[in-house]
Design brief:
The complex is a heterodimer of chains A (about 260) and B (about 55). Chain A is mainly α and about 260 residues long. Chain A has helices at about 10-40, 55-85, 85-120, 125-145, 150-165, 170-180, 200-245. In chain A, helix 2 packs across helix 7 (about 200-245). The chains are: A mainly alpha (about 260), B mainly alpha (about 55).
Chain lengths: ~260, ~55
Amino acid sequence: MIAFSSLANPAVFLRLTRRVLPWLGAASALLIGLGLYLVFFVAPADYQQGETVKIMYIHVPAAWLAMFAYVTMTSASLGVLVWRHPLADAAQKTAATLGAAFTFICLVTGSLWGKPMWGTFWVWDARLTSMLILFLLYLGLIALRQTMEDSPRGARIAAIMTLVGFVDIPIIKYSVDWWNTLHQPASVFRAGGPTIAASMLWPLLIMALGATALFLALHLMAIRNEILRRRVARLALQVAAAGEDGGASGQLLEPAQ
Amino acid sequence: MTDEHWGYIVLAYGVTAATILVLLIRILLEHRRLGGELARLEKNGAGDREETL
């Protein structure tokens, strides 16, 4: 059995993810395919929302993943601050882009649902506003990483900023309970159990599982890229240093075609 | 529910698919570029095979 700590070794990580990724991709495609079939051919129209309820099947998983990505980043940030492991830093850095993408999907699909249902694309409701803040947090963290070098100090600053931003996650989750909002309260993960009909709950859960598998696959691929990018940067530096020491040819530093 | 609401549904699914596709293509192209660059550097003798970050 592979020890958990050995997974933090980039070589083991690359080898393992090379094996896992095809299965994760296939699971994601199958689950999303099945989910879309259920959404468009089996799940009934809502008695109030009509067919517009079909937007919920992508909006809700996107919202869950938008928050899940931030929780992932926060866990990775703890890995950076406590163990100072570069792989945790790569995980933290790459999750930001994915989180921003899923938050964007959540905001756009929510607006497209809101127009026919509420009569407006946007209201400054607590849930919507806190979700917009999450999107801005992601953009801020991406910008922060782009302005800093891949130094341990830069990683620690990004990790601390991520931890500070985590305060928005419980605000998003409980905004519908703490304030009077136009956004409906939780209907799946709530104390008394789901209030959504089983005929709609199952397609939603299958879509959410498929989207989660997709997120994990994209995240693993992005981490692999980050490992490769840092290795390329290190080798390019070595070549540059060798060139200075021994007059090695400059052709090694030419950009790849 | 009127037919015009299908426009919102199609747009929502379209934006979602486009966003995911852009992410996926960006990651795949980046992987290809980095793989090529790494192979070129290693071929040119910069190959430390250590698996460190």
